[in-house]
Specification:
The complex is a heterotrimer of chains A (280), B (406) and C (324). With 280 residues, chain A is an all-alpha fold. Chain A is 73% helix and 0% strand. In chain A, helix 3 packs across helix 6, helix 3 crosses helix 9 and helix 5 crosses helix 6. Chain A is globular. The mean pLDDT of chain A is 89. An eight-stranded mixed sheet of chain B has the order 2-1-3-11-4-8-6-7. A three-stranded mixed sheet of chain B has the order 5-9-10. Chain B contains 15 helices and 13 strands. Chain B is α/β, with parallel strands linked by helices and 406 residues long. The radius of gyration of chain B is 26 Å and the shape is globular. Chain C contains eleven helices and two strands. A two-stranded antiparallel sheet of chain C has the order 1-2. Chain C is globular and about 75 Å long. The chains are: A mainly alpha (280), B alpha/beta (406), C mainly alpha (324). At the A-C interface, helix 1, helix 3, helix 4, helix 5 and helix 6 of A face helix 1, helix 3, helix 4, helix 5 and helix 6 of C.
């Protein structure tokens, strides 16, 4: 049996290894500081009138992902954390369970539906903003809010009741108890959950197809479209132009590196925290 | 997406709650991650202000043609004309005034109908139902013309002749093998392999599809009655790929495929493309010159800007050396900007838009040939300028610096 | 010194009610909580209203309509091809993914040396962190051609008699999309299965061992029955993820709007349909029909997700980080 199960584990590792290997092989040589900052190039495989193809860069996409994800976090984290606090701290009420359940339901919403939701709403109520940073942020927030809510909820539940009761017995008002004591003690898990939802949002392309839309330029204002790494990968990946394909691999490599680093770091932190809790 | 984080249940298991007033002392990994994210954000913000992320910019070469500062207009649509649009937007107004997204003519028409963009670009002129679906009177302004070529991937076959009947049969699914008799008959010197033809089509709403299906409808009555011409057609066979780039990319990497793309994409693969028989009976490999002569010989009667352009066609031009699958490509803009978009639409935007359009039909045409698009003849450009001049903002013509009358 | 003394002086507890700050705090968090509940209704509401045109044209017949034709010569809309393709690709994903995920979970909980368990588990779960579009890119460039040149001819040779492996071998088809989805759902199923299996009480396993069971028999008799609902729930959760995947699918499935006739057929799932055709401009009925299909997808995804959560609430309620 160990042979079969080991074979399963190895079979799973093969595609993972190949993806990372190919991304490193094809994206690595393209990476350079100028590629990280330069603008998108004209798609091109052969020199035009003797002018060689521009290498270009993924600068606008990096910037766009940073802005969209940062703004989406700014929107999602307060709402998600607050909703989790409500669900956990005021748990006697029916609403608390309802929020927990709804957050679970929302995590099942496909990301493309989140994009369609924002797109359809803005087409009716404010068409000028349909393709903009604002809608891109909102679409990513729809995806992030349930994840943040669930993670914060789980994190807050790990704080023992005795802590809250002790604080309240000392006369500390509920809001200070929650914010300064409960949240703070659950902070590592909360931060980890936020990081993970951020990294998930950073990799999403479907909700941005109809909202952020993509852009050749960098940030041009909140009411203008913006590029993002996953969008760039989608647009460039299928092309026949060599410079675009190289940039797509470079962008894929960057995205993989960013996500893997964050994932590994957050796991190490949680592992360390668990070991400490067990060891005490 | 999954963090199988085991923030484990030591508390619930034993009930021994070590008072969590004691702070966790080492969260290095976590803080490191947070710090990295914060640093990246700060660096990106700094980079933005340092101008790192602007697209390639060079000052435009139009005399006295300077768009007003601060306006950014967005356009979307045709992937066929995208390489040329990219060049235009990179050059015009320092490279930061126009943002054009290549999403397909279908999406371009939808976007302009829903007023989510300042201009749409489509290789397919508006059909009646789409005109009704617009939010106001729109102008159809041809800004360029291109050739749609049949690209293919056949090892050892660098050049191939096609005609309309065979292409229609391939796309109907009635011809399925590369070494079929009809294709072999018009390619006497070529050894065609025996392989299933892998047909590639567009999966999104496409003006290139409109041009291709218009041609197939003209060449095959079966096609015309079953599928017709349009930006979206339910192709009976074929793998669907989005955008010109997607079709080009797929054909380039997959053997035995055939697809249809604009000439620029074929030459920038580079991907082999076939010669097509024109009405005069010659097999023509598309070039800028024979596309331009096709446009000239077809000599279409153009309606006014607000008229019905649906029947404008430059397919199957009569000249001996003309490339048959040629088409104009259009910009779609609203005529009454403030009335259609509402009060939030600023004069700066209107000026940027009108300036850009003027620039495109004057200086911009000089960039066409090197990217394998046809510089439009003077009569079309003059008609375009008349259309652009009819754009109004708050009831008055839009002030501009780029029109040739300025 | 009492280490729990807050920095501000101790106030005498209030007799009734809370301070106004507590009320404001309560208001804020309640608002956020209500917002989360409101969000799901808002999504459903927008989709329902925007699909109204298609619903009034086709009613529930849309769910059984088998033709989707966007040609100008004849426009007719029916969702069956997309529902079928969505279910088929997800089924392929589970058929391939479930055994591999369970096998690796068993490996990690029973067979692997202790030093390997953590790192290997982490590595497998890293698969889940790779974005869908990167999977699609890899599938387009590497997996698709590999399927076309190696796997599909072999499948046709050995399994062609079943009738499901015939047809044009392009590598861009329902099968390839299913394989990519399998790779994407394996970490989800594996992670939760591992937790479930790890939660099996030692006593169960020791009892089986004391009766002379082999490794496999211990697993079969002591662990798997105990972990059954957890593993099943994990699989349903993986299914939920597979149903909604867009980018990886649209880059590998061939985007053809018709019922598949074999595993080698090009197809179109509901999510790839939305990505490709939402802004097609074939008219308001087409837009509405696509939203209608999206509504169906939303309903299926939510139903599947809820079933999974109900099965897993015992496993998940023991506080841990977010497991999707």
């Amino acid at each position: 049996m160990s042979a079969i199960t080991a074979a399963c584990a190895i079979a799973i590792l093969i595609p993972l290894g190949d993806i990372i290997y190919q991304a490193a092989l094809l994206g690595g040589p393209t990476l350079s500081f100028s590629v990280l900052t330069a603008g998108l190039p004209q798609p091109c495989s052969v020199p035009v009138n003797g002018v060689p193809c521009a290498v270009g860069g993924i600068g606008p996409a990096l910037q766009g992902t940073g802005i969209l994800v940062g703004l989406a976090a700014l929107v999602s984290v307060p709402i998600g954390l607050a909703a989790a606090i409500f669900a956990v701290e005021y748990r006697g009420r029916f609403l608390g369970t309802a929020i927990s359940f709804t957050a679970d339901v929302l995590t099942g919403v496909p990301s493309v539906i989140a994009g369609v939701f924002i797109y359809a709403y803005f087409v009716i109520y404010d068409p000028a903003l349909v393709f903009s940073v604002i809608t891109g942020t909102l679409a990513l927030s729809v995806i992030m809010i349930p994840i943040v809510t669930r993670t914060c909820e789980e994190a807050l539940r790990t704080v023992p009741h005795a802590v809250r009761e002790a604080a309240l017995a000392l006369g500390i008002p509920k809001w200070r108890t929650t914010l300064q004591i409960v949240v703070v003690s659950a902070l590592p898990a909360i931060l980890t959950g936020i990081l993970l939802s951020v990294m998930r949002a950073a990799g999403e392309a479907a909700p941005l197809l109809f909202t952020a839309f993509g852009s050749r330029l960098g940030f041009e204002g909140f009411n203008n479209p913006i590029e993002a790494l996953p969008l760039l990968i989608y647009n460039f990946a299928e092309s026949a132009s060599n410079n675009w394909i190289h940039l797509a691999w470079a962008a894929a490599l960057i995205l993989i590196i960013l996500i893997l680093i964050t994932n590994i770091l957050s796991r190490l932190t949680i592992a360390r925290m668990v070991r400490r809790m067990r060891g005490e | 997406m999954s963090a199988q984080g085991s923030t484990n249940s030591s508390t619930t298991a034993t009930g021994s709650s070590s008072p969590t007033m004691k702070r966790q002392t080492s969260r290095t990994g976590l803080y490191a991650a947070v710090a990295i994210v914060v640093i990246v954000v700060v660096v990106l913000a700094a980079g933005y202000y340092a101008g790192w992320f602007k697209g390639s910019s060079s000052s435009n070469s139009g005399t006295g043609c300077q768009p007003p500062a601060g306006g950014t207009i967005k356009g979307a649509g045709s992937t066929l004309v995208y390489p040329l649009m990219f060049q235009w937007e990179s050059v015009y107004g320092g490279g930061t005034a126009v943002n054009y997204e290549s999403v397909g003519s279908g999406a371009g028409i939808t976007d302009i109908s829903q007023k989510t963009v300042d201009f749409g670009a489509s290789d397919a002129p508006l059909e009646h139902a789409q005109v009704v679906g617009l939010a106001g009177t729109a102008l159809t302004i041809p800004e360029s013309a291109g050739a749609v070529v049949p690209i293919y991937n056949l090892a050892g076959v660098p050049t191939l002749n096609f005609n309309g009947t065979i292409l229609a049969d391939i796309y109907l699914g009635t011809i399925t093998n590369w070494n079929n008799t009809a294709l072999q008959a018009i390619n006497p010197g070529v050894t065609l392999p025996s392989a299933t033809i892998q047909v590639v089509v567009r999966s999104d709403g496409s003006g290139t599809t409109f041009i291709w299906t218009s041609y197939l409808s003209a060449e095959s009555s079966t096609w015309a009655s079953k599928y017709g011409k349009g930006t979206s057609v339910s192709f009976p066979v074929g793998t669907g790929e989005p955008k010109n780039a997607g079709v080009a990319g797929y054909v380039e990497k997959t053997p035995d495929t055939i697809g249809y793309v604009d000439l620029n994409y074929a030459l920038n693969g580079p991907i082999a493309f076939g010669k097509v028989a024109n009405p005069a009976g010659h097999y023509i490999a598309a070039t800028v010159n024979n596309t331009a002569s096709a446009l000239k010989d077809a000599n279409p009667t153009l309606p006014t800007g607000t008229g019905d352009w649906f029947n404008v066609s430059v397919l199957n031009a009569p000249g001996a050396g003309d490339y048959p699958i040629t088409s104009l490509t259009y910009v779609l803009v609203y005529q009454d900007l403030s009335g259609t978009y509402g009060s939030s639409y600023t004069l700066t935007e209107a000026e940027t838009l009108v300036d850009f359009l003027y620039w495109v039909v004057t200086t911009g045409q000089g960039y066409s040939a090197q990217l394998y698009y046809v510089p439009l003849p003077a009569n079309i450009l003059t008609a375009d300028e008349v259309s652009i001049a009819s754009i109004t903002y708050n009831g008055a013509a839009v002030p501009n610096t780029c029109g040739s009358s300025v | 010194m009492d280490p729990t003394t807050p920095s501000s002086p101790i106030r005498a507890p209030r007799h009734r009610g809370r301070g106004w700050t507590d009320l404001v705090f309560f208001g804020l968090v309640a608002f956020a909580g209500l917002f989360v509940i409101f969000l799901i209704f808002a999504i459903a509401a927008i989709l329902i209203t925007q699909s109204h045109l298609a619903f009034s044209t086709y009613g529930f017949g849309f769910l059984v309509g088998t033709r989707w034709n966007i040609s100008p010569t004849e426009q007719v809309y029916g969702a069956v091809p997309f529902i079928a393709d969505t279910l088929i690709t997800s089924a392929i994903a589970l058929v391939i993914g479930f055994p591999l995920a369970l096998g690796s979970a068993l490996f990690l909980t029973t067979q692997a040396p202790r030093w390997l368990r953590g790192p290997l588990g982490t590595v497998i779960e890293l698969l889940a962190a790779i974005p869908s579009v990167v999977y699609g890119f890899w599938g387009l460039i590497f997996l698709g051609p590999y399927m076309r040149t190696t796997v599909e001819p072999a499948l046709h040779r050995y399994l062609g008699w079943t009738g499901g492996f015939n047809g044009n071998e392009t590598g861009t088809d329902v099968l390839t999309a299913g394989v990519i989805l399998a790779i994407m759902v394996i970490p989800t199923i594996s992670a939760i299965s591992r937790e479930t299996l790890a939660a099996v009480p030692v006593a169960q396993k020791e009892a089986a061992l004391s009766l002379g069971a082999t490794d496999w028999e211990v697993t079969r008799t002591a662990m798997l029955p105990y972990a059954r609902s957890g593993v099943f729930g994990a699989t349903i959760l993986g299914l939920g993820r597979a149903l909604g995947e867009t980018m990886a699918v649209t880059m590998t499935i061939g985007n053809h709007d018709a019922l598949p006739t074999s595993f080698f057929s090009q197809g179109q799932t509901i999510s790839s349909l939305i990505a490709n055709e939402l802004t097609n401009s074939a008219g308001p009925l087409q837009y509405s029909a696509i939203i209608y299909a999206g509504l169906i997808l939303l309903a299926i995804s939510i139903a599947v997700n809820v079933v999974a959560r109900l099965l897993l609430w015992r496993v998940l309620r023991v506080s841990r980080g977010s497991v999707e």
